What we know:
By secondary structure, the chain is of the alpha/beta class. It has helices at residues 8-11, 14-18, 44-54, 68-77, 92-103, 118-127, 145-155, 175-184, 220-224, 236-242, 253-264, 266-289, 310-319, 345-362, and strands at 31-32, 85-89, 110-114, 131-135, 159-163, 188-192, 213-218, 230-234, 293-295, 302-307, 322-323, 325-326, 337-341. It is built from 14 helices and 13 strands. The strands form three sheets. The protein has a seven-stranded mixed sheet, with helices on both faces. Helix 5 (92-103) packs across helix 6 and helix 12 (266-289) runs parallel beside helix 14 (345-362). The protein is globular, with a radius of gyration of 21 Å. It binds pyridoxal-5'-phosphate. Pyridoxal-5'-phosphate is lined by residues 36, 91-93, 117, 163, 167, 192, 194, 218, 220, 225, 230.
Amino acid sequence: MNTQTVDISTLIRPEIQALAAYHVPAAADYIKLDAMENPYHWSEELTVQWLDTLKHVAINRYPDPEAASLKQDLRANMRIPEEASLLLGNGSDEIIQMLLLTFNYQGRTVLSVEPSFTMYRLLAQVIGMPYIGVPLQPDDFSLDMPVLRQAIVRHQPTLIFLAYPNNPTGNLFPRHEIEEILQLSSGIVVIDEAYAPFADDTFMNDLRRYPNLLLMRTVSKLGLAGLRLGLLAGHSQWLAQIEKTRLPYNINVLTQHSARFALQHYHVLETQTAQIRQDRSKLLQQLNALTGITTWTSQANFLLFRVAQAQAVFENLKAQRILIKSLHHFHPLTQNCLRVTVGTPEENQAFINALQLAIQSVS
Ligand SMILES: *Cc1c(COP(=O)(O)O)cnc(C)c1O
């Protein structure tokens, strides 16, 4: 091929050229506390049972395009109201993409708060939908309601994404403020409840009250991140349109059967998440006992904390084979902030020990 005639700068959209690809660090040999994964696997017995169900899967056939049985199981386990429609995605990331594909049209905008989940902005840029990021308040990462109200009235965003609890800050925004946003918005408000298994509140029962509310969940943080399965619940008038942007067989046959098996053993996942919630409190206490650390309470399976020279602390932890997430360069409000996923008690203790060493050696 003659490459001289191929000019990347004219063939690729400038928005794509300007993007940094989503980077996931290699994690071999690390204690991996960077990605909000559930650290627990299943018992040998349960694993054998699971693999047994997969024996009978017709891998030569396309999967059920509607994933009807899986949807029924999800409805039951996640207590989705009967009147709500349901749409599945290959992770909730894919659902965010479908939402943007559906609603992007002639200057319409998407709004979220910052710092929050990267995919809202990143996928908006990929799809070419103008994105508005409204900063949270410094110090406690609460909603800046005066600025938000103004932005909503001025831009009339077609889509608003709110993570509840928020990532990477871990807080739940006050319910009454989200309800005000639902009332004020002439567009769709997507409440992303990826961390529902660890939170004390949900908008699931508000779907019938707010026709412009769509609720997103995922099984990733519950303990099934490898399956890639997310869901969107809401009024059928919206979901029927969003369905048109879904690729026909987006939920593969192994995911459909494995997720159904896992949901039949939901109590196992619930026991694990209950353990993680408990260990979250202990880890927070341990962080608070260290000098020079600012913490925030969390309703998710991770904790955000601030420490002097966070980037150096992060690198030092990495050299000790402990991988967490640095948010130092992520957003001005998360300067010197690090985020740690709650692991097993042993992993958490190893992290605390390593953190103590790291703080000593960088100061
Ligand atoms: C992790 C996360 C997701 C991604 O979920 P997947 O189903 O794994 O794609 C979505 N939203 C938030 C806020 C998250 O933190």
